Amino acid sequence: MIKLGPFLKDAWFIARPYFRSEEKWSARLLLGVIVLLNLSLVGMDVVLNFWNGAFYDSLQNKDWRAFTDLLFLYHRGKDGSFMPGFSAVATIYIIVAVYRTYLNQWLQIRWRRWLTRVFINEWLSDRAYYRISLTTSAAGLGTDNPDQRIAEDLRSFVGDTLSLGLDLLSNIVSLISFVGILWSLSGSIHLFGLTIGGYMVWIALIYAVIGTWLTHLVGRPLATLSFRQQRFEADFRFSLVRLRENVEGIALYGGENDEHAALLTRFSAVVMNWWAIMQRTKLLNALTSGYQQIAVVFPIIVAAPRYFGGQIPLGGLTRTASAFGQVQGAMSWFVSSYASLAAWSATVERLARFQRSIETARAEAGQGIVISETPGDSLELRHLHLTLPNGKMLIEEDAYRFLRGESVVIGGRSGLGKSTLFRAIAGIWPFGEGEIVRPKGSHLFLPQRPYLPLGSLRHIVTYPAAADSASDDAITEALQKAGLGGLAERLDEEHDWTLLLSGGEQQRLALARALLIRPDWLFLDEATSNLDPEAEAELYQLLRRELPGTTVISIAHNPAIAAFHDRKTTLTAAQARPARLSETTPASA
Question: Torsion over CA of 190, 192, 193 and 199, rounded to 10 degrees?
Answer without folding.
Answer: -30
